[in-house]
Structure formats: C-alpha cells, structure tokens
Amino acid sequence: MREIVTLQCPVCKNRNYSTTKNKKTTTGRLEFSKFCNACRKHTDHKETK
C-alpha cells in the first residue's frame, strides 16, 4: 500500500513537495534533489513525518 509523504528542505525547513512511497519495500527515508522556491536553489529534500 502506498502512503503520501512530505518532503522538507533542510536549509529553510519549508515543506515544498509531497510524493508517495511503498512502505513495505522502502523502509528508509526518501531523499530527492528538488528546487526550493524559498532558497532559490536545488537542495536535497528529505522525507518528514
């Protein structure tokens, strides 16, 4: 079953993106390089609770 997770910028702490993941196959936290509008640059957005 896929669950919705939120991605947060580590620099400014903005929660900019949401995505889905399969909790059975992906047990760790997701991390994507995404563009942050507040920082105006690409940062490694990490999954939050």
UniProtKB/TrEMBL annotation:
One of its GO terms (biological process) is translation. Signal peptide: none annotated. It holds the Pfam family Ribosomal_L33. One of its GO terms (cellular component) is ribosome. This is Large ribosomal subunit protein bL33. Keywords: Ribonucleoprotein, Ribosomal protein. One of its GO terms (molecular function) is structural constituent of ribosome. Belongs to the bacterial ribosomal protein bL33 family. It comes from Granulicella mallensis.
